[in-house]
Amino acid sequence: MKRIYLLSTEHLENGLWFRDEEDFKVAMNYVAIEAAQHPEIVVLTFILMSNHVHFVLKGTRNDVKNFVENFKRRYSIYYQRKYGIRKFLRHNGLDIKLIPYEDEAVEKAIAYVLMNSVGAGICVHASQYQWGTGATFFGQPEKGGKCVKDIAVRLLKRLLHTDNETIPGDWIIGQDGYILPQNYVDCKGVETLFRTPQRLNYFLNSSSKARKRLEYSDSNLPAFRDQTILVSLPDLLRSLFHKESFAQLQPEEQVEFARQIRFRFSADATQIARVCGITYTQAAQLLDGM
After folding, report:
1. What is the C-alpha to C-alpha distance for residues 258 and 33, in angstroms, rounded to an integer?
2. What is the model's pLDDT at position 280?
3. Rounded to the nearest 5°, which phi and psi values hold at 173?
4. What is the CATH number of domain 3-218?
5. What is the 3-state composition of the chain as percent helix, strand, coil, each rounded to the nearest 5?
6. Where are the domains of the chain?
7. pLDDT of residue 207
């Protein structure tokens, strides 16, 4: 029987799923490819965060699990080719929760996913976050873009980082280089569920992620995205220590490097761990050594 499920991967403690915008674009296209290959799955919403992903999908439990596992496998292959890291997500666990139809649980699950970017301090409204379905519902259709059928095969393969999958010809690739979620997400179903933009905003503003943001002052929220810090670290390493990687630093240099990241980027131990590729415990110990 087809039911609605919230699927969430474990948060990577000492690494990032997405190191730059190209990684996000590739992953957006891989979600679209999985949707094209599995029309029996209804995609209600999803979000790609720096170190984890969330999906709300309708289908059988086995089918929705395979959807996300196939997406992870596809992205891991891309990641290995780009960064040389094998079996990147092999041990990244997947939590699957059945969402009942009662007590507005579906609306709450969708709002929870959409608000991840706001809870992380990346933006002030879910619609401002590009990597997922934040701007998909009750909005104006994105202008520009090109139909898949109008793109040369070689260029399409290069854009999608894939070889053999068939994508519907009327699907549109937006100006940023990825297939727009409006092509494969059940926008009409989600909008019918919420009924009005005001009701969607009510659920967004009352979600646990919204409450989390209100509980903390802005000083305790990340000031910079992980990808922004990651791009800056090589220059910081070279200017401070004349070294090329965090692994080359001596223990006292690692303490100073963590201090610099904290004060330059208002980063906490969790964010420092992700961008440096170390555990939270290691990052906390470095900060304690300041």
Report:
1. 39
2. 79
3. -95, 120
4. 3.30.70.1290
5. 50, 10, 35
6. 3-218, 222-288
7. 83
